Batch of 2 targets.
Target 1
Amino acid sequence: MSNHTKKRVSIVGALAATALLALAACSTSGGTATTSTSGAAAKIIKVGFSQVGSESGWRAANTKDIQATLTTANGFDLKFSDAQQKQENQIAAIRSYIAQGVDVIAFSPVVESGWDAVLQEAKAAKIPVVLTDRAVDSKDTSLYESFLGSDFVLEGQKAGEWAVKQFGDKPTNIVELQGTTGSAPANDRMAGFKKAIEGHPNLKIIASQTGNFTRAEGKTVMEGFLAANPKIDLVWAHNDDMGLGAIEAIEAAGKVPGKDIQMVTADATHDGMQALVDGKINFIVECNPLLGQQLADVIKQIMAGQAPEKRILTKETTFTQDQAKAALPTRQY
Ligand code: GZL
Ligand code: ZN
């Protein structure tokens, strides 16, 4: 190849490389615009998210997934707030998102009721709202575009059906560690479990109290249950974290969890599944926290002027000890 041609080839090569670099830079810089598939600059979507808190392993996995999915590289500018399980903090966060003029508001309501006023304000500001994880009891369903999350009644039912199978018609004293008072998961898991055991009068819920979905409160409430009830056969804990706290109280009382007192929980987080493998929990009903992709898809539909499905269910299953042994090594949370 002549020197002249070599020179031309190297200039063309350099130009092509620069062009490629420029293109790459603009698509990952996450500046004001990203190149969408059509090549036209797609607007970054400003999302205000109000999270319940950081009360449990489930919540930590849910937060991690949402933050890992709603990134600038994926076309989002995510504003995220943790309400420490207080409704007034969520209402304040939603109001601040309205004031900031975000494109979409998403949140997991800590309790079911008391949202109509602030959701009316979002509607008046023409900011669409997406519910994730937990539901609100607003009669006016125009206040939100979509609700994506689990069927908690079904989760409770699965736990109750297991208890019926496990204890047959032997007299069985059950204590219930309820989730946050007034929250959709607590209300619905309780209802589902009760429905599954009705018609089996041998299965009796002899005590029921909220442990607010935390390990610490689950332990304290279980200590109270143990002090007041000489015969407890089964703990029904609305989440793994309260169950793990209860295990500490059971062991401190010199009893063997999973044997002297059996346990069924909801969530299937890593630590819960480990306790199931260790035989301290006997059955877990999964509640899938990985809602980030579904949320991203719903927001993109809304921004494209499409109406998302009103109710989007999460896929989830149940685990026996053997199934937990098989699943634990590859679980994402
Ligand atoms: C259920 C979620 C509940 C989990 C708890 O979707 O709202 O809140 O079961 C969490 O672990 O605290
Ligand atoms: Zn029966």
Target 2
Amino acid sequence: MIKKYSFGRPMDTDAVVQSLPPESEPLPYFTLTRTGQGVSLSLALSPDEVLFGLGESVRGINKRGFRYRSWNSDVFNHTESTESLYASHNFLVFFSPERLLGLFLDDPGPVTWDLGYTRSDTAVITSEFGDLDIYLLEEDSLPALARAFRRLTGRSYLPPRWAFGYIQSRWGYASEQEVRAVVREHRARHIPLDAVCLDIDYMVDFKNFTWKPDAFPDLKAFSRDMKAEHIRLVPIIDAGIRTEEGYAPYDSGKAGGYFCRKEDGSDFTAAVWPGMCAFPDFLRDDARAWFGDLYRPLLDAGIEGFWNDMNEPALFYTDGTVSKAFRRAEELQKGSVDYEAMWFLKDAFNSIANNMDDYRSIYHFPDGKPVRHDRVHNLYGAFMTRASAEGFRRYDPDRRFLLFSRSSFIGAHRNGGVWQGDNFSWWSHLKMALQMLPNLNLCGFLYTGCDLGGFGCNVTEDLLERFLQLGVFTPLMRNHSALHTRDQEIYRFSTWEIMRDTVSVRYALLPFLYSEFMKAALMDGMYFRPLAFDYPEDPRAVRTEDQLMLGECCMIAPVLEQNASGRYVYLPEDMLMIRFRSAADYDLVPLGRGDHRIDLKLNEFPLFVKKNHPVLLCAGGESSALLDDRRLTAVCRMDRDVAYDLYRDDGISPSPDLEKSLSRVSISADAASGSAVPGVAISEVLL
Ligand code: MIG
């Protein structure tokens, strides 16, 4: 059951697809306080209450015990104490033996989530501007609640099937030759690969929708050659448009009046990578239509996937913030040089980027009337994603395109995926990536993953290998790293063979993982879930922070620590462990409910599977297009006849038919008798 309560003057954020009449009764359960224009909701938490949600945010799967703030931010340097990341996903679930309640704040402005921070027994959620719709969801189980929320906000984005292949990316690839060399190194060593991302260096002066004529002389031919090798190119697009007369996207944007304005009506400009930029007013339908069409030359060149960046929007500086900092420096120079003056000096320069005064000086015109940016800040990335997705649909309504964004808001999950932002090559960020996944799924973002190996800092061989072992299971499996960091392609490392074997497991599992993903997406389910969703009455499972349910029947438990020779895993029920070394090399170990210490050498990682649920493996291959998903090996711990409906489709059709895409795989009980591992069947399946 979903109920809506309106406060102030809510605007259409595109988050919700079901229109409900607002209730006339006051909001139940919460104590409401008005603070200036804001609205605060507070709720007493019982000691055993856990909180799920908030999608992209730091810390645990259970969000209790910290304060988060919805304010989309470019935070290269994020840690455990960072309150705001790149996205705002204002959905939270309260779960205890006494309560199951979903709370969605459809609020495009800043929201603070004090979840047992000020007082450990109280949640206080504050909408700073107070113009919002609040939705309360009540269902009788966690999965039902998640499904109800998805119905409210719409079906998750479907990427093309090739987007489940391994993707290599790096900030710095500057020419066709360089990209060809990356592909060659992968193919020569039989490291599977489906796509290479092009970062900002492919553009002329970092200008969107351009590509360097010398470095990429014939993008169409290049893209065609790559596709012949089953490789897709995935270029980046940033939010800002350089203010340069004669640069077509700027000229057409200016002529159409599609850019965000300042109070005096002139275009708001700020510097980002290309230098001074204007910012498309994605909240306007006409500006979105214009921007979406700017992708055409790239689409015409055969490009089928993009990543949208810098769309919080990130602002390096404006003329205003720079001159203010200089003025402050001059003032300070007049006084004595002491430590205090030095702090002020530092602060003055640190506030040049992503400055609140700048965000307050931007205006959008969603329907002709001005709306100040800070009131709708968290929508910007989501509406950029929408502009792109709408453009792709106009370009070719019969195809799925790959699209993932850095910034997002609930609603954007219908139009694209997200990557988890600029992580570091840290073990703690490997754990953070894992913990973010189920909450992103709960908020609708199924197609997601982190920068494998870590974006900032220098990775080590073992860390990359452990990142890849998580990446085997994340829908977006992309190795990405920052300029000036250590080379991070698999083939750069002495242990490249074990990394290749790890990626080969992804390809062996790809038809199965794709099936699990598509079923979750098409049935408004979750691909990754907290264990609580499957074992709500098991307090151990409810509080498990380093294992995830995957699809209908699997559980993952990656190694998250350096120099570990294994880890403890909690099994809420009897399962089969598949300990992988490669696509063809794995152990099958039936384990009972309870705690287990699992030995896992650096090249080993486990997948746990519930009883009587098969996992399907194909022979593997070097590209998703080359996998044979009709000839599979079913592995199953079983004590009765079992069946699995494998989802298969053409991988690009935007409106697949779930029923028609299922092929039934049946295994009879006797398949497990007389097998090498008692009770575990290994059967060949032909479809
Ligand atoms: O200011 O395009 O998160 O993935 O490599 C940095 C360069 C801009 C941030 C993205 C990152 C990308 C980088 N971008």
